[in-house]
Amino acid sequence: MRDALVAAAFQLFPERGFEQTTVDDIVALAGVGRRSFFRYFPSKEDVVFPDHERCLADMTEFLDASADGDDPVARVCDAARLVLRMYAENPAFSVQRYQLTKKVPGLRGYELSVVWRYERTLAGYLRGRYADRTDGTIRADVIAASVVAAHNNALRSWLRGGGRDDAAALTDQALDLVMRTWSGEPADGAGATPPPEDDVVVVITRRSTPLWRVVRDVEAAFDEN
After folding, report:
1. Is 105 in the same domain as 9?
2. For the segment 20-74, what is each residue's pLDDT rounded down to a tens digit?
3. Which of 69, 84, 140, 184 could disulfide-pair with 126, CB 3.0 to 4.6 Å?
4. 48 near 101, Cβ under 8 Å?
């Protein structure tokens, strides 16, 4: 029934347009009731992205199964490949959805919210792996954003080509840049370059001292350093 609803929706969207197609239109073509639609999909937008909840659950399970000895960057790159695999399982549907989302601003916003959830999942895993680093939080967030950006670059290139190219090869090429940039450093920060200490100059002077003399003393203090 779930697949029938998706098929009906994607038959109607190109014919009538996304905005003009109603839930009643979809269930009528699928031969089911409105209650059945909302049992599977909270909204009409969700029927456009029927596989993301499952993929997000698979990604979370994959990251949770990570061992302490795993390279955290390699692990999140492999997690991103799970998303690519989801798209590549049905190239025709993925390309059709891509063409639809380009035309409907509301769907692009919905897609961005889905991508954000993937990014937060990756960042959450990395924050745990980098918890002992002073820069752990920002490192986790930046790496997660890098992985998502690399994955999306490869994915869109594949979709723009009509799903005919080698999606895995495009993704490997993009994620390799992430690996070469971020992988290879210990997760606990051992050997990391510590941030420089602040260089503070304190000048003590009387309130009655002329301002020009205060400035001169400050300049002299900097010259000494």
Report:
1. no
2. 999 999 999 999 989 999 999 999 999 999 988 999 999 999 999 999 999 999 9
3. 140
4. yes
The answer to whether 27 and 36 have CB atoms below 8 angstroms apart is yes
Tens of pLDDT, residue by residue over 170-224, are 999 999 999 999 986 554 444 444 445 555 556 566 666 666 566 566 666 655 5
Interatomic CA distance for residues 11 and 5, integer angstroms? 10
Residue 135 C-alpha from the chain's centroid: 20
Give the HSE-up count for residue 60: Cα atoms under 13 Å, Cβ half-sphere.
11
- Report the amino acid identity of residue 42: P
Structural domains of the chain, count: 2
Say if CB 7 and CB 16 are below 8 A apart.
no
Q: By the 8 A CB rule, do 182 and 76 touch?
A: no
140 and 114 housed in the same domain: yes
Evaluate whether 74 touches 180 at the Cβ level (below 8 Å). Answer: no
* Residue bearing tokens 């400050």: 218
78, 171: one domain: yes
Residues 6+ apart with CB under 8 A from 186: 192
Distance CA 65, CA 67 (A): 6
